[in-house]
Amino acid sequence: MVVCNSDLELLARKRGWKKLIVYFDEDMESVNIIFPPNMCCFGIHDLPVSSFTSLLPFANQLRELNLQRVNFEVICQCSLIKRCPNLEVLYTEDGCGDTGLQVIGQFCKNLRKLTHNGRVTHMGLIALAQGCSNFEYLKVRLVDLSNEALECIGTHLKNLPNFCMECIGSNLPLDNGIQAMLMGCSKLERLDISLCRGGLTDVGMGYIGKYGHKLRYLSLGYTGESDAGLVELSKGRSKLRKLKLTCCPFSEEAVATFVINVDSLRYVGF
After folding, report:
1. Considering the entire predicted model, what is its pTM?
2. How many other C-beta atoms are found inside a 10 Å radius of the C-beta of residue 78?
3. What is the mean pLDDT of residues 10-22?
4. Angle at Cα 266 formed by Cα 177 and Cα 204, nearest 5°?
5. Which one of 110, 205, 222, 224 is separated from 35 by 20 to 30 angstroms, measured CA to CA?
């Protein structure tokens, strides 16, 4: 439910409300806000810093938290997350960077789904993977990535079925990291990766085909070097049903051959 500030006090008297999305604007009074006592799912849009303390008493009971366009300072966001040990679903655009992921990994052990649209590095990703082992969905944006971080995901997130990753700042070959991640995350069914040029070579494409046995959805951005990469990808025991290619150096002929070679495929976008 979406409400304005004048409705919050009324909702606070209704014990049945457990999920709440609140939009704030400049004209709304924002101090001493009263929230429903049984609230466990909360979405914040443009919540001002002055209202931060009103939310803290409910943090421990929150299972789902959506932080969009919050005006909190970095220290406030980290302080809030530290008070949410029962959190299972988190969407954040925070500016805490690696520190934010470290805090999530340390205090949110029950987290199942995370969408993190901030800017982090491989160090934050490592801390997150080491701290949260129950992920069902993980989406992160990175400015730097290493093979070590991908290996860490394979080591600690054994049951991860859905992984989405965008890296805009590293052109190091990540073939070995992708291999280790796929070998460790044996239940992975959906993989969406977008890297800088050179981030995944044709060898890495072959690793996806060889070790991504259960992949049904695969989206690749700026990956591979030549048509040989698609040939290598098609050699595995594939269950792939949907393939999306964005800015990859593959010819139409290579894509057509891939479609013929992968019997399970139902959709290709490029």
Report:
1. 0.87
2. 18
3. 54
4. 15
5. 110
Q: Which CATH superfamily is domain 2-269 in?
A: Ribonuclease Inhibitor (3.80.10.10)
CB atoms within 10 A of CB 247: 11
Query: What number of CA atoms fall less than 13 Å from residue 116's CA on the CB side?
Result: 32
Q: Of all residues in the chain, what percent carry a pLDDT higher than 90?
A: 63
Query: Which residues lie closer than 8 Å to 6 by C-beta, 6 or more apart?
Result: none
d(CA 100, CA 116): 10
Residues 6+ apart with CB under 8 A from 103: 78, 81, 82, 96
Question: Where exactly are the structural domains of the chain?
Answer: 2-269
Across 25-50, average pLDDT:
62
Which helix (H) or strand (E) covers residue 9, if one does?
A: helix 5-12
Residue 238: HSE in the Cβ half-sphere, 13 Å Cα cutoff? 29
For 253-266, the pLDDT digits (tens) are 999 999 999 999 99
pLDDT tens profile 56-90? 888 898 899 888 766 666 677 888 899 999 999 99
C-alpha distances (whole Å) from 61 to each of 33, 37, 57, 64, 235 are 17, 10, 9, 9, 48
Q: Give the tokens for residue 106.
A: 């340390």
Task: Classify burial at 152, counting beta carbons within 10 Å of its beta carbon; exposed 0-12, middle 13-18, buried 19 or more.
Answer: buried
Q: Write out pLDDT tens, residues 131-166.
A: 999 999 999 999 999 999 999 999 999 999 999 999
